[in-house]
Design a protein that fits this description.
Elements lengths: L1 E9 L8 E7 L6 H11 L3 E8 L2 E7 L4 E2 L3 H13 L7 E5 L5 E5 L5 E6 L4 E2 L4 H8 L5 E4 L3 E5 L3 H5 L5 H4 L6 E7 L5 E7 L4 E4 L6 H12 L3 E6 L5 E8 L2 E6 L1 E10 L5
Parallel strand pairs: 2-3, 4-6, 11-12, 13-15
Antiparallel strand pairs: 1-2, 1-18, 3-4, 4-5, 6-7, 7-8, 8-17, 9-10, 10-11, 12-13, 13-14, 15-16, 16-17
Length: 266
Amino acid sequence: MDIEMYQVDAFANRLFAGNPAAVIVRDEWLSDELMQQIAMENNLAETAYVVPEEGNFRLRWFTPVAEVRLCGHATLASAHVLFSHLGYGADQIIFESLSGPLTVTRREGGLYEMDFPTNSYTSADDSHEEMVEILGFVPIQVVRGEEDFLALVDSQSTLDDLKPDLRRLKQVDARGLLVTAPGLEVDFVSRCFFPRYGIDEDPVTGSAHTLLTPFWAERLGKDKLIAQQRSARRGTVHCELKGDRVLLGGHAVTYMKGNLRIDGIQ
């Protein structure tokens, strides 16, 4: 069995930047076991699977070790494949997902704008000592979102120099840790760590910005923000808070199109 697959650099306007995601679009689902095996073999932060469903599309995301409820960069990559390679003619795609309907709109200049649910957060003072152990210093503030911890640090340079204890983080009952600071050239910067899901540091994390956006919108007193995730690959995210939704915009570049040869497996 041959399976067509694309690899896309999301939240980037050039190759070898942003966050790479694999995208597989099919008329019907592969087995869950095979989808997980392909994601493990790809060894990317996410492999996305897209299947038509009742006039829209159903979208699922797999890390190398597990299926997840929401992924931003692989959603952006999936929309890019449909718009740019598979002839989808409208300017808006609706993906049904474990996080509800997700809309991606094609804007001028090659920007894709995703409409995601906002991630609410609460104080996490009871986890402050735990975060100190992981970070190696005392953060300014720690909050907890629906899946992740978020730690605020004082500066972009502190963020860049950060070397968290990933083994200790892997023991924490959360998807991962987002560390953020005021940006020098953008509104805010971040780095994101998810060792429990097989991703020590994610290059650019769209879903993290459903938490980072309301956090910084409240802190800075404005709803439109520009963010940069400062992994080695870097990536820019255009953020807008709209009530209980977050609009996340970014570009995408296709790196590869190929076929997987899956012999003897259904």
